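Problem 12. The chain below contains 175 residues. Write out its predicted structure in C-alpha cell notation.
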Amino acid sequence: MILYHTGTKEIRNPDIHYGRKNADFGWGFYLTPDRDFTYRWARQNAVVNQYEFDETGLLIHKFARSTDWFQYIFNNRRANDVLTVDVVIGPIANDTIFDTLGILSSGYLKPEEAVKLLMIGPEYTQIAIKTEKALKQLHFIKSETIEGVTSEALKMEQNAYMEDFAREMNRIIEG
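Solution.
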C-alpha cells in the first residue's frame, strides 16, 4: 500500500509518539492512501512524504462513518484511546468536529445529530500507525516539496460543505 504524509519537513523515520494524543484515532503517525487529497489540501511549501506499507501480520481496525466511528473519535478527543491495535483505518473527521463536539458536550446536540453533521461532505481516509511493530513495516520512499496553492476545486468543495452543514443544522434546530 502506498501512503502519504504531509508536513513541514521530510520524515524518513516517523515517530508514533510525536504529535497530539487526542487526535481522531489517538496517538500515532497519520497518513492517507489518497494522493489527490494529500496534494489538494497541502499548504504552501509543504513536504509530501511517500511511504510503502506492508499490512501483513498486523492487527488492523477499520471504521466506516458510523456511530462507532464517532464514539471512538469522541473518546480520543478526550485522550481516551480504547483500541489496542497496530493500525486504525477510517474516515477523517471533518474540520468541524471540534465545533460539533463542543455543541454536543453543551447538550445542544444528541450524539445521533452530531453523527449526521459529521457525515456531511466528501469522505477521505486516514491511517494511524499506532505501534512500533506496524511502524517497522512502513518504509520511506521519497519526499517532495510543493507550493500547495489552494485550487478552485478545493474552494468549491469547502463552500458546498459549509452550505450542506448549515442546511443540516437548520433541520436539527427546526426539529
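Discussion. The first helix runs from residue 35 to 41. Students who got a different answer should revisit the alignment rule from Section 12.3.
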